[in-house]
């Protein structure tokens, strides 16, 4: 049996694990850290997500000295909503990017990349502390055979084994949170697909289904991600051919049908996992979670890798100032600082991803229309949301401001914009709402604000909460009286902003 000791041991050589290995190895220290990077399978991975890096993620890569990992992988300069300044995002084949990150980690001083399957955590005998991992090495093992068993010890263990983490509970203990799934993304690769705007991301709104995303990942390949909500149809391919493909732009239909005939369908869950503070009495010492093993959001906005890389930038700074990685008190303070310092980026991306996804719900058609018309105003109405989406200006307060503005602009659209009504000979007529419709529209306005509250406030609360949520209580025999809370929500969302809106209109006049 192999036995070795390292300063830092990282489980998982994905985006988070590989970039952290390189970041810690390049710290300016008198004695470089000895780092082990363990990965179950080192050949190039083949996934349908992790192919879009927002400009904020590109900036984080540059800060880590890893911007060269975007070169020579046929990456596309894409995501060109009008970002402020000269910022740019990238899209690419996930596997090629990962291989570049692993090569960068392998070349860093003191890093050893090991192909091994981690089977268990090693705990200290007299305290709740992780001191290493047990694994089965693949070095020299024939295909299909198990290699040598090995135990790796380290002052600090980092678990970055992705969304299907096997060790989340081992690390978090009683504070562990179970990830919830909000449907699936089904992925296809279209060959030489003529996008409406080349080298731009495209979102297709499909009736009766979630959004369809298309973006180039190389010169000839375009990724198509189809949102499929629960329950997943039994015959998924037939569902896509009959319900989704006919609603795509005409030039894309042939490419989609060819991809369906050629490739197998692959899907990934769209999961939500709020970040619970680590380093507390409930969690184990000597270990931390990183990346999707700890915090997940909807992949609609392509912000997952950006959050992971921003986390690595922060951890590099905080761990670099730590004299002893084994000191539990110092490490707890570091993890507490990390938890709150990451909030501008993480909370912005997390809230925005599900807030945008919820806008595609059929019940939120008014908010969705208001959002689109809000963007059409141009200026700050599009540059602000674009700065948030690209993570150039990560600010939960700015996000809340634009979300409230969209909610009230949706009401403004409801009262002032013409809408289609049946006309002569089946032709629609566009007429503005009449005065006698105002009472009905006012009721709809209250419903819009109530719906906006249900979308935004729980997401904001999940980011403010640092503790693990308690299991849902059993419903009481008599429902509790909730009118005061409802009134409070209406006052916060309706009365106060309406007064500010009226003041703005008066001052503008």
TrEMBL record:
Its EC number is 1.14.14.17. It holds the Pfam family SE. Its cofactor is FAD. InterPro entries: FAD/NAD-bd_sf, Squalene_epoxidase, Squalene_monox. GO terms for cellular component: endoplasmic reticulum membrane. Its main location: endoplasmic reticulum. It is found in: Endoplasmic reticulum membrane; Microsome membrane. It is a multi-pass membrane protein. The keyword Transmembrane applies. GO terms for molecular function: flavin adenine dinucleotide binding; squalene monooxygenase activity. It catalyses: squalene + reduced [NADPH--hemoprotein reductase] + O2 = (S)-2,3-epoxysqualene + oxidized [NADPH--hemoprotein reductase] + H2O + H(+). Residues 153-417 form the Squalene epoxidase domain. Keywords: Endoplasmic reticulum, FAD, Flavoprotein, Membrane, Microsome, Oxidoreductase, Transmembrane, Transmembrane helix. One of its GO terms (biological process) is ergosterol biosynthetic process. The chain crosses the membrane at residues 487-506. Belongs to the squalene monooxygenase family. This is Squalene monooxygenase. It comes from Mycena rosella. The lineage of its organism: Eukaryota, Fungi, Dikarya, Basidiomycota, Agaricomycotina.
